[in-house]
Structures
1.
Amino acid sequence: MAPKFISFEGTEGVGKTTAIDGFCRHLDELGVAYVRTREPGGADMAELIRGILLNKNSILHDDTELLLMFAARADHSYKTILPALDAGKWVVCDRFIDSTVAYQGFGRFHGEQSALDKIDLLIKNFVPRLPDITLWLDLDVAIGMARAKNRSQADRFESLDTSFFDKVYQGLEYGFNKNSERICRIDASGSIDEVASRIREAVGL
Ligand code: T5A
């Protein structure tokens, strides 16, 4: 089977990390070679940019934040994603372009068409490879935020309020409606095992 590039998306605390852990264990059992990675980050310079983006002390204009996401993504794409796929490995990525549409396009820019057009242009011009499948872990925002609260320290995004994450959710729904051939909506309620089996079924493994 040709190697696949799979991204996981969702609002805060929906269980992406947990789901990716389970999915990667499944790939191990099947003997599928893969690279597990994340955004922002996933390559040396991209991880430095992640440090700036998530640091609560960083004061960034919304345009700066948007462009840093794409700068990190270019580093990640050329150093990690493309080489892995070229080497015949699957790529399992925690967040990718759909997070930008949701967090920046909707969270920061309120879904304004001009911002969504800019993001589209950035994707078309600076993202050399899109995911084959995107798994949107769909969970009520409030439930995800309650789960996320158990973490030790909130980063620059996690400290935002519910109204921001409601917009992020709208952005994920917008992306899903626009790209339903690539994005699978996964019901992320229920037990960890139930979510894991929905994911395996969606990927066909
Ligand atoms: N960002 C990113 C942008 O703004 N634009 C972009 O373009 C990109 C790429 C990255 C931040 O960057 C922003 C979005 C993000 O705010 P991050 O540190 O990578 O941040 O963290 P997140 O992606 O937000 O992930 P989270 O840490 O919030 O949560 P997860 O990974 O979704 O959730 P997880 O697995 O850690 O689970 C949370 C808790 O729930 C439990 C787990 O045990 C854990 O305690 N849990 C369940 N409980 C009950 N039932 C289940 N089915 C459960 N599954 C998990």
2.
Amino acid sequence: MKQNNKNFFLWGAATSSYQVEGGIKNDWTRAGFDSGRAADHYSRFKEDFDLAKELGHNAHRFSIEWSRIEPEEGKFDKKEIEHYRKVVTALQERGLEPFVTLWHFTNPVWFAESGGFESPKAVFYFERYINFVTENLKDVKFWITINEPMVYTKNSYWLGIWPPGRPLSPLSYFRAIKNLIQAHKKASVVIKKVNPRAQVGIAKNIIYFEEDKHPWHYLQKLGEYWWNEYFLNKIFDHQDFVGLNYYFHKHIRRETHPVSDLGWGIYPEGLYQVLGVLKKYNKPIYVTENGIADAKDEKRAQFIKDHIDWMKKAMAEGVDVRGYFYWSLLDNFEWEKGFGPRFGLIEVDYKTMRRKIRGSAYLYKYFIKHS
Ligand code: BGC
């Protein structure tokens, strides 16, 4: 699919460091959520990118692990940034456009101990880290500063199921959101200074809330605004594109749609609906994540096809979508749920680390080719 003369549509898949690399020690590891060897992507990235290329992708989203880059406060590890330089080069050599996430839920232990994103110092630390990374990866064009700030703060400071594990802490919750907004703004300025051509955004989880006529209708609208739009509105002037992570819809009735292995309702039309909502920002949109846990690979191909079809419908109606990244390229460590859920286009045998391409990955290849 050609977007216009200059921009080709980006097709690919996404991963994040802690979920696939292996050998990382960060605040999650300390909290007992150890991803161990994960999918050993740290040493197998070239082989994995060969597969992505073979599957017809022309872009790839991955994240940089802050705890590798700055294992101690203010001490930056040259070897580790060199590793990510090799990752970027490996993608470029295979014709895959790198889409680089700078923060995907994980923190160095020293940062967590200093108060994490609850602390106002977080903004300074984050900016300094971003500066180091971007200075060393000057030729990367697409940057995602922060992945899903609302999901992170909810799980960490409301539910308390993610590090730092602080349930029902409204003050911490609001402080962390405020600091994440500031952190993004500062980071975007740094990135633009280093590379004026860079395109900067965040990956924002957006839920499609189906209209339900009930007495709390207005309360729902408020919740919808808070979850979907508040953060994006706050950073409006500091983003070149909107990154959209779309997984599911919500309504108060019982789920009647088919579900994934995690019980998440499959509702592709929701992607069309939320793209319609994001149109008002008048910026290019990249679907930075969309995927399904489906160990048997029975529903994935249809899932991808239907979401792409609804995305195309939105595009035909004038929504400026420029890329789609399936979550995920590989099976990976699904945070507090561990290794059970299987999101990968590529199956990983965690004992042998052998990769096996799932059938749906070939269908995705077909959809890409014929788009
Ligand atoms: C996150 C991923 C996660 C995926 C599936 C997204 O919210 O960015 O890290 O694996 O959802 O749960």
